[in-house]
Write a structure and sequence with these properties.
The protein is of the alpha+beta class. The chain folds into two domains: 1-69, 2,3-Dihydroxybiphenyl 1,2-Dioxygenase, domain 1; 71-130, 2-Layer Sandwich (Signal recognition particle alu RNA binding heterodimer, srp9/1), CATH 3.30.720.110. The chain has three helices and nine strands. The strands form two sheets. Strands 5, 6, 7, 8 and 9 form a five-stranded mixed β-sheet that branches. It has a four-stranded mixed β-sheet with strand order 1-4-3-2, with helices on one face. A hairpin with a 7-residue loop joins β3 (40-46) and β4 (54-59). The longest helix has 11 residues, at 15-25. It is globular, with a radius of gyration of 15 Å. The model has no long low-confidence stretch (mean pLDDT 95).
């Protein structure tokens, strides 16, 4: 039996707003956008179609879900974006207005900096050593 993680659900305020940010600002690809009826959509974005996993953008429905937008993990880093060119991606994100909450730092495993997406979810941008 073979298994793999293909998507992580991310609660968002609005489908199109989220698509614009993850595609336009972070440079992700829109992998799928399928209407499900009743205003719901199956929206999947990923760093690339070959990335192996992506974000399922789930528009919040109801006050409980809306209250969790941007804070699905209680303020901890939630998502980890690996890159093979930290300096270029960091510079590109800064130029696009991405808010980094700390300066890049060098750790035993590589170079990392924490940024927040448009909702306040925290991400690690990481270039692994080696």
């Amino acid at each position: 039996m073979s298994q793999r993680l293909t998507a992580v659900s991310l609660v968002v305020r609005d489908y199109d707003e989220a698509i614009a940010y993850y595609s336009g600002v972070l440079g992700f690809e829109l992998v799928e956008d399928t209407a499900l009826g009743g205003g719901k959509r199956w929206v999947l974005v990923a760093p690339s179609r070959q990335a192996g996993a992506g974000l399922l953008l789930a528009q919040a429905s109801g006050p409980d879900q809306r209250a969790r937008i941007g804070d699905q993990t209680g303020g901890r880093v939630f998502l980890f974006l690996h890159t093979d060119d930290f300096a270029a991606d960091h510079a590109r994100y800064l130029a696009a207005g991405v808010r980094f909450v700390e300066e890049p730092r060098h750790e035993a495993y590589g170079t990392v900096a924490v940024f927040e997406d448009l909702y306040g979810n925290r991400w690690d941008l990481i270039q692994r050593n080696g």
